[in-house]
Design a protein that fits this description.
Strand 1 and strand 2 form a beta hairpin. By secondary structure, this protein is mainly alpha-helical. Helix 3 packs antiparallel against helix 4 and helix 4 crosses helix 5. Helix content is 67%, strand content 10%. It is rod-shaped, with a radius of gyration of 29 Å.
């Protein structure tokens, strides 16, 4: 708890220092944090990850593939669910009309329907698990690609920190637009795909 508070206070001080230094220094993306005896230069930038996901060709392709798998899974489940419903209705109709010669035969059909229902539930759980695993794999690939691009982009060490900013859950409450390196990173990511 204390560590989290310390990090939050440090970031607040850094952001406040950045705002104060906007008028004092012509260098974008640089903050100076002053203490009693020293000045610390704290260069920062951020990447809007929502924009990356919306415009990074690899992310778009993988998202489309994942959506296709999800649609295929839903279609498969819908078909099997309809077949199960039809089988259930047939068994119920036969039971009401007394078509089964013995009670044992009727119970066998009921058990067959229950097994089909259980199989369908198991299939749904498996397909959901597979989609989640695929989503995790894609997220890992995207994170790896972003990390490589950020290392290349920051090879000169000009930034000490690069934040991510997501509209749904912003970690950056305010930032000067000059600290937004999203388009540079997006261009780098997309250019690496074409190699």
């Amino acid at each position: 708890m204390k560590k989290t508070l310390l990090v939050a206070v440090t970031l607040f001080v850094a952001m406040t220092a950045c705002k104060k230094n906007e008028q004092q220094t012509p260098i974008a993306n640089v903050c100076t944090i002053s203490t009693d005896s020293t000045n610390v230069i704290f260069p920062v930038a951020y990447v809007n990850t929502d924009t990356l996901l919306a415009k990074y060709e690899f992310a778009i392709q993988k998202n489309e593939e994942l959506q296709k798998k999800q649609e295929d899974s839903q279609l498969e489940l819908a078909k099997k669910s309809q077949k199960l419903q039809k089988d259930y209705e047939d068994v119920m109709k036969k039971m009401q009309n007394g078509i089964y010669a013995t009670q044992q035969r009727a119970e066998q059909e009921q058990n067959r329907i229950l097994k089909q229902q259980q199989d369908l539930e198991n299939l749904e759980a498996k397909l959901t698990k597979d989609l989640l695993a695929e989503n995790d794999k894609i997220n890992h690939q995207l994170r790896d690609s972003l990390n490589v691009a950020l290392k290349i982009y920051n090879a000169d060490g000009r930034y000490k920190m690069i934040f991510g900013n997501i509209i749904a859950d912003p970690t950056i409450l305010w930032a000067d637009e000059s600290t937004d390196i999203t388009n540079d990173i997006l261009d780098l990511l997309n250019s690496r795909l074409k190699k």
